[in-house]
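just leaving the lab so this will be short. below you get a single protein, a line of residues and a line of whole numbers that encode the local backbone shape. id like you to explain what the token line says about the fold, in plain words if possible. thanks a lot i owe you, the record is right below:

…
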Amino acid sequence: MVRLFFYNTSLKNIFGYSINEIKGKHVSMLMPERFKLKFIEKLERFKLQEVMCKKK
């Protein structure tokens, strides 16, 4: 899972979240709903490919 670990004032200015609200949350919480499912599917596919490459 892709979690947010870095934070700066631009993130607060753009999205309105404080560091306590967003630290450790999944990065998809910053995306519009219509993009979340596709992003998570692609992320899972990427992780699967990475695991398969390590097995070779």
The CA atoms of residues 1 and 43 lie 8 Å apart. Helices lie at 9-15, 19-22, 33-55.
